[in-house]
Backbone:
């Protein structure tokens, strides 16, 4: 399908540098929202899909239902007549097996499921500002059909500001990327690092998910405009950059970087950081001793099974809303300084080595979700984790029950999980009745009499 702007469309009257369009789950209030704000604040005029815009809202569903027999057929002869073409956006074009010409005037090229292995040899991309070559059905893509972009092609793109590529093969010697780049999104980036000549002074968004990268670059680089980094699933990553030159970073995603052992200490002083996701970094052993991320809203450390301790809080983290430490088998305690996180709404301590309840929990008046649970990790830890919260009472190990009254002040709590906490009959009724907003309660894995029917108990308002 060839997409050209309508002269009657209200958005065509305004000049945009970037069009944000995401398929699947609605991310406008989280990742896409951060991305949109970062681009806008950096002077990049950005259009974002909005529910208030009705024009064209049925196009995407129609595209998804197109059969190959109904796909647009664009012959090479058609393109050869478009000498002055500056913007080209194509989706699902069939029978385009011998493309020999693209206009050298092109500023914007967006071709989903580009059918060939290379761009036309006659194409001179000197004027190209935006290059988008995503392949949406990656699971069906054979390596023999992957796009081949040579280093020579990129060396001609001096003005390139936005680059999005998915699954490029035979790009083993990339020596050049435009220093004008604001947005770099390259899924499965095939090299160990970015080109040494690349100066990311203007870079705002860097997305290299599932890449082979080991480190972004050697030494420090000026990153004063950089706001978003995603290295999700980059399983070869061994070193993070020095973040001192990226003081305005707002989003950092390193989920699934499985051989990363530690991070640069400068991570702890990123004052503007809002989202830090280090989920499933299974080799990660340490974080900075102290963190002073005063703007942080979401901290995800789940699955960091070798992380030994949670850092001390330097200053206030009054914006923190979600903290996930599930499956951090070796983390034994939370620092008391975390009591300053008064805005905390979600706290997941499932399957950690925490043996005593943090005393500050009752002070978290905005807490809505609280998950506890016995550790299911390595056997050597299980003797210390028969229950999440245990205290010595009358010569025996008592359950979390003695601590439940301290939870009664959590008037905002809506979801509570107490899995494998050694609870028994009569341990919870009085404390739970004080949680006026509670709608979900999970109690499986405890010591209730099966006849009571509450080994797994869910309350749904």
Residues:
């Amino acid at each position: 399908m060839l997409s050209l702007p309508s002269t009657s469309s209200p958005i065509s009257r305004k000049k945009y540098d970037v069009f944000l369009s995401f398929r699947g789950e609605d991310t406008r209030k989280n990742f896409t929202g951060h991305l949109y704000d970062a681009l806008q604040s950096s002077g990049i005029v950005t259009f974002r899909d909005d529910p208030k815009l009705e024009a064209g809202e049925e196009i995407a569903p129609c595209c998804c239902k197109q059969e190959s027999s109904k796909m647009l057929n664009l012959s090479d002869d058609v393109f050869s007549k478009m000498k002055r073409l500056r913007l080209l956006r194509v989706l699902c074009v069939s029978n385009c097996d011998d493309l020999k010409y693209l206009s050298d005037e092109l500023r914007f090229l967006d071709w989903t499921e580009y059918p060939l292995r290379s761009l036309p040899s006659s194409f001179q991309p000197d004027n190209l500002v935006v290059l988008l070559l995503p392949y949406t059905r990656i699971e069906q893509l054979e390596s023999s059909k992957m796009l081949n972009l040579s280093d020579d092609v990129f060396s001609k793109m001096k003005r390139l500001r936005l680059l999005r590529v998915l699954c490029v093969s035979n790009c083993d010697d990339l020596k050049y990327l435009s220093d004008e780049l604001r947005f770099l999104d390259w899924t499965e980036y095939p090299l160990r690092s970015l080109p040494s000549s690349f100066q990311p002074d203007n870079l705002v968004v860097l997305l290299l998910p599932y890449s082979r990268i080991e480190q972004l670059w050697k030494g420090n680089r000026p990153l004063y405009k950089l706001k978003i980094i995603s290295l999700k699933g980059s399983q070869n990553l061994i070193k993070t950059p020095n973040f001192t030159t990226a003081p305005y970073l707002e989003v950092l995603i390193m989920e699934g970087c499985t051989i990363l052992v530690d991070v640069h200490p400068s991570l702890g002083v990123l004052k503007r950081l809002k989202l830090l996701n280090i989920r499933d970094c299974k080799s990660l052993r340490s974080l900075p001793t102290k963190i002073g991320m005063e703007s942080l809203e979401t901290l995800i450390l789940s699955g960091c099974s070798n992380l030994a301790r949670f850092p001390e809080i330097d200053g206030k983290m009054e914006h923190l809303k979600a903290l996930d430490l599930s499956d951090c088998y070796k983390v034994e305690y939370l620092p008391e300084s975390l009591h300053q996180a008064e805005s905390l709404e979600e706290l997941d301590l499932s399957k950690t080595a925490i043996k005593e309840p943090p005393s500050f929990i009752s002070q978290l008046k905005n807490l809505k979700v609280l998950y506890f649970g016995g550790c299911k990790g390595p056997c050597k830890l299980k003797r210390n984790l028969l229950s999440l919260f245990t205290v010595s009472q009358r010569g025996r190990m008592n359950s979390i029950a003695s601590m439940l009254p301290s939870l009664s002040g959590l008037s905002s709590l809506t979801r509570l999980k107490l899995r494998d906490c050694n609870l028994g009959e009569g341990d919870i009724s009085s404390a739970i009745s004080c949680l006026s907003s509670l709608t979900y309660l999970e109690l499986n894995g405890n010591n209730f009499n099966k006849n009571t029917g509450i080994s797994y108990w869910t309350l749904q308002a």
In short: The longest strand covers residues 87-91. Residues 1-13, 52-68, 136-144, 375-399 have pLDDT under 50 and may be disordered.
